[in-house]
Amino acid sequence: MEQQQLHDSVDQEFGGENTLRRSAAYEMASGEIARAREFVRGFLSEAQVLRGWAASDRAVDVAQLVVSELATNVCKYAPGPCLLDLESDGAVLTISMWDTGAVLPAASPADPTRIGRHGLEVVLMVCQSFEVRREPVGKRLVVRLALADSADRVSSGHTVW
After folding, report:
1. pLDDT tens, residue by residue, 43-86
2. In the 3-class helix/strand/coil scheme, how is the chain assigned residue by residue?
């Protein structure tokens, strides 16, 4: 299934803050992961053009990485319909991904010999916040990322070590 824009152009005001939102639907298979990354890149580019909101290069890369990891998990554990919602106020990007899978993700215990299955660990390291919610059908993962870097903090909001 081709990427489908659910909300072509939805700009809304919430709590006095100007918020830009976009959504896309996928029939998640491995080829759709690249489309989901492109959707995030396009959203952040559009936010800069429409609103003058700048995202650091690192934040753009991290946002694409997070979407790639979330989409990969959908492909592996809950193939089928998937909704990707993006929202920003210019300072923070909220990435929300819904899928039909009933099993909630959990990071694996540290194991230096383990090959693969590090995606959720990576996401948890780079985000400001991470939530998992059960839905009437499936689940929704919500990740928040800072869009700007500062001298003592990286785009994730975590202190540089």
Report:
1. 999 999 999 999 999 999 999 999 999 999 999 889 899 999 99
2. CCCEEEEEEEEEEECCEEEEEEEEEEEECHHHHHHHHHHHHHHHHHHHHHHCCCCCHHHHHHHHHHHHHHHHHHHHHCCEEEEEEEEECCCEEEEEEEECCCCCCCCCCCCCCCCCCCHHHHHHHHCCEEEEEECCCCEEEEEEEECCCECCECCCCCECC
